[in-house]
Specification:
The protein is of the alpha+beta class and 449 residues long. Helix content is 29%, strand content 10%.
Length: 449
Amino acid sequence: MVGPFGPLLLGPLKIESGGVDRSVMRRWRGRLPLLFVLVAATFIPARSAFADFTDVPTSYWDYTAITYVAQTHTWMQDYGTSLFKPTTDENRELAARALVEAYAPTEPIDPTITFPDLPTTDPFYPYANVAVKLGWIATKGGGAFDPLSEISVQKFDKAIVSAMGSLADAVTGLSKIHQDDGTAYSVDGYFAYIQLAHWLGLHYNHDDESMDLNKKDHIHRDEVAYSLWVSETVPSWEIDDAAAFDDISLPALDPSKNQNQKDKENVTAYALDQMGYPYVWGGEWNKASPPGYCCGSQPIGGMDCSGFAWWVMKKNEGNYNAAQYHTAYSGWTLLERVSHDMAEATTSQVSYGNLRIGDLMFFASDGSGKASNVDHVAIYLGNDWMIHSSGSSDGVAIEWVGAGSWYNDIFVFGRRLIGTKLDTPPHRVDVAAGDGPHAGGELGDPRSR
């Protein structure tokens, strides 16, 4: 597709074993309003709209988003009309300016908010003031704004999700995720924002896995542009669907009752704590592969769908020892590396209605319901919620999978690990394998309507 500034590019589709990653298509679906904006720019002269950045060729993965945020709009036109500096780390004052210009351009400052390191006469002071006033960006020690320091992915997630303005109830619900009896799961202060940013598709899933970012990495300007573009153009129905997160209640557990109950609570707590890892095809580890690693190579920490199942559920076996990170439970035998093989090795299939916390959930995105066509796996959390690492959310995210959801429609069966023992040899083991298309593992459209 060609737009007024050249090809409308979202980056290459990632294909594995004949599959097409429609998670990229999901990002494009709902972007037609953007297309009309860009087309309109060819008929409505605007000096900023015709600027060309010499460091952002039309073939650049983020060309469309950068065009939108720094040419169609000037929210990120920070280095003039010739340079964008896409791979430069974004700093706090520029992030504040972009978000305030996009979401609160007429918001008045609060004159009682001042910073020892940013004078009121500084051109960035109003943006910093409003960003702090609205709770998007927090000050640092001594009330400093620290305008030139980099901003991390998780802090930018908080800023942009807060700026979007319609997700406050979802943020509250996610922050207070709890059991039916009111027992709260402990999640960190960025959990809700990371979840919503990934679930809404605000992060791009790169074909080059080394370009993906973990939550504590500094966010680059091209990634900021992508997040801002998606946040501005995401379909309204998708924002409405976020109401599912307003109150998340998982099954009540009594860890003093028996080991299974204790294991289920610990598995849930640990899985939730993994929020922020990106989707990495062939990944099952929390950092780049160390020397002598058992299971192939990955350039950064992150997991694909079955790699996430290994990371959370697998015991120390086969020279793979992620169990060292979940010391509250030892894990279970899970020899198969990819979802298809995990499904075919299942001897006792669990129906949806009989799923329990910690069960593996298998999906066939072609709708066939066949184990031989399984291409995605998740971990069941109970009460129609699951957690998985998905290309469509570029990483770990929780998802509602009740009746009427896309995942419910393509569910095949579950496999129980907690409280069971391996009773048959594995169907096939390839510890270096990756699962599904490079960008997903699920081939369909998780939130199509």
